[in-house]
UniProtKB/TrEMBL annotation:
<dbReference type="GO" id="GO:0008654">
    <property type="term" value="P:phospholipid biosynthetic process"/>
</dbReference>
<dbReference type="InterPro" id="IPR005218">
    <property type="entry name" value="Diacylglycerol/lipid_kinase"/>
</dbReference>
<dbReference type="InterPro" id="IPR016064">
    <property type="entry name" value="NAD/diacylglycerol_kinase_sf"/>
</dbReference>
<keyword id="KW-0547">Nucleotide-binding</keyword>
<dbReference type="InterPro" id="IPR001206">
    <property type="entry name" value="Diacylglycerol_kinase_cat_dom"/>
</dbReference>
<dbReference type="Pfam" id="PF19279">
    <property type="entry name" value="YegS_C"/>
</dbReference>
<keyword id="KW-0418">Kinase</keyword>
<dbReference type="InterPro" id="IPR050187">
    <property type="entry name" value="Lipid_Phosphate_FormReg"/>
</dbReference>
<dbReference type="GO" id="GO:0016301">
    <property type="term" value="F:kinase activity"/>
</dbReference>
<protein>
    <recommendedName>
        <fullName>DAGKc domain-containing protein</fullName>
    </recommendedName>
</protein>
<feature type="domain" description="DAGKc">
    <location>
        <begin position="1"/>
        <end position="127"/>
    </location>
</feature>
<dbReference type="InterPro" id="IPR045540">
    <property type="entry name" value="YegS/DAGK_C"/>
</dbReference>
<keyword id="KW-0808">Transferase</keyword>
<dbReference type="InterPro" id="IPR017438">
    <property type="entry name" value="ATP-NAD_kinase_N"/>
</dbReference>
<keyword id="KW-0067">ATP-binding</keyword>
<dbReference type="Pfam" id="PF00781">
    <property type="entry name" value="DAGK_cat"/>
</dbReference>
<dbReference type="GO" id="GO:0005524">
    <property type="term" value="F:ATP binding"/>
</dbReference>
């Protein structure tokens, strides 16, 4: 049987294998022929996509926001429709896309849903989904442990935010938006097109990921 769908699962994502088998059964019952890849390390994901993706009709990523951003360049190169099974802690892009957090309903949505083009951002030559940030947000991510994600889920971000704010260092930057320039001082800057960021926090309820525009909370 020749596979038509590449499924790449980040085993280190928070939800991991929970209910994943049931979701895979749903995809198979719909007639999708899966090539399943479970890399030992997340940094192997782009290579697997580059190796197998071009021969597939579609690519499904099982993971969270970090997994998607790690795979972004490889997904662009393959030029195949991409589906998402939200297995991460925050799943902010999935929230913006109104994807169900439960694995089986998410897989049903993959089967019954319609293709929709979305915009990716680009920072220093690297593409990203949903949001890119500097400052406190980066420190929050660095301070979250795998064990904390597994145990506390989104609440792990609150503890990490507290620790990050204790060691914050303001910085100066120049914002150039729509031909206007402004010098600001901040501890955090994010640029993105998603509605949610930082574990489900709604930063702009009417944000769209298909309008060729970004928002920039400072």
């Amino acid at each position: 049987m020749i596979a038509d769908t590449l499924l790449v699962v980040n085993k280190k994502a928070r939800k991991g294998q929970s209910d994943l088998c049931a979701g895979i059964d749903v995809l198979r019952q719909a007639g999708w022929r899966l090539r399943e890849e479970y890399p030992a390390q997340p940094n192997e994901i782009p290579e697997l996509i580059q190796r197998y993706g071009a021969d597939m009709e579609r690519i499904i990523i099982g993971g969270g926001d970090g997994t998607l951003n790690r795979a972004a360049e490889a997904l662009i190169q393959c030029k195949r429709p991409v589906g998402l099974i939200p297995l991460g802690t925050a799943n902010d892009l999935a929230r913006t896309l109104s994807l169900r957090a439960d694995i089986v309903p998410a897989c049903v949505s993959l089967i019954n849903g319609k293709l929709h083009e979305i915009d990716l951002g680009n920072v220093n030559g690297k593409h990203f989904f949903n949001v890119a940030n500097i400052g406190v947000g980066v420190k929050v991510t660095q301070k979250i442990s795998k064990q904390g994600k597994q145990r506390w889920g989104v609440l792990a971000y609150l503890r990490s935010l507290y620790l990050a704010l204790k060691t914050r260092h303001p910085f100066e930057l120049t914002l150039r938006v729509d031909g206007k320039e402004e010098r600001v001082r901040s501890i955090h800057v994010a640029v993105g097109n998603g509605r949610h960021y930082g574990g489900g926090v709604t930063i702009m309820s009417d944000a769209r990921i298909d309008t060729n525009s970004c928002i920039c909370p400072v």
